[in-house]
Amino acid sequence: MLKLRTEKTDFSKGKIWRVILNQSLPLMVAQSVYLLYNIVDRIFIGHIPGDAGAAALTGVGLCFPLTTLIAAFTSLFSTGGSPLFAIARGAREEKRAEKIMNQTAFLLFLSSFLIFMFCYLFRRPILMLFGASELSYQYANSYLKIYLLGTTFAMVSTGMNSFINAQGFPRHGMMTILIGAFINLVLDPVFIYTFHMGVAGAALATILAQAVSFIWVISFFFSDLSLFHFHRNLWKPDWKLIGDICSLGITGFIVQGTNSLVQIVCNITLKTWGGDIYVGVMTVLNSIREVLSLPAQSLTQGSQPVMSFNFGAQKYSRIKSSVHFMLAISMGYTLIAWGIVLLFPKALMSIFTSDPALIDTGAKAMFLYFFGFFFMTFQFCGQSVFTSLLCVKRAVFFSLFRKVIIVVPLTFLLPRLGFGVDGVFLAEPISNFVGGLACFTTMILTVYKKLPPDGETAHI
What we know:
disordered N terminus
């Protein structure tokens, strides 16, 4: 039975586009639904009657850097462990693969407890540092003090779900998110409106949904369906292996961590140059960007275990085919998404808020923020290849390059160079163009063109 299931999850066989889609489509559905955890919260919160809706949306937006930072630590371990896990599977090193999975689970549990303690104890100074006013702090604190209680549920369910996908069970991984999102969708309006809990109700609905997802994920690894299981003796820290996991996962950490940094810088700058309304606008624009970029991200992320497996199996021609496929599909999609933004800006804004001033202001900002949206494809593809093939230094550099070296300085400088608040929204498309092309070009020259014929040893 084990042999049969292993053969069915062998990524070195079958048409490469079909293998990638088999991995990516369930992941796309799962991640789409995962966005509902926070986006549904934002939609219901933004439509709270009167001025309270806009103020509450701004308050929740101030929590994003912190929730993104939690996601960054999740990514540190999951995106570090899962490619190593997939490569070990491709090389038929089953015992090493199981140990990698168990060490990653240990790291997720331990870090989630430490992060919860720190963020809960210091939430007021953190939120004020992020640009909260006394009014917006009330809403941000009401949301955050409950949301943080689900830190372990969120980190473990999300982080270990990547190991379900890497075993070749993306549909089961999809259910992790579907179950939680359905519960969140049902409970949100009940807690927010029926019980009049406001933002606190949104947070409570979220952590209850995350708890159910957590139970679903953990139960998988104790079931007969899983090819690999938890073993207590494998949770003893192996510092060399932990170092390998963190070294590879630092790319994912930096991607998420720099997103958090950018959100903080944007919130502070927008509050200075435009006031709380622009913090609310950025909250909505970030939500729309997350939704529209998700299919391209899911495709490239779904390609990662496939490329890692084939790298371990020395099937380099399949890696090249993977690059061709994900670039073509992602590019076509992001061009269509950009067109939707240009045609329906107010309709997109109105999904998240009923405030006329917020809708008008956000529609104007949207044209700037999403300009040349398709250039994000180059960053996604380049980073996916670097991470899959263990090119850690290049993956880390280009994560830092786009956000820290380009976006953060431009967010500070452009408003002071005469662009005003528009300068904050212009920083994103500039970084997509410069950072995306630089990342993809480097990947082609230093990785793609250096892959040897199948069966030989790669030196990249």
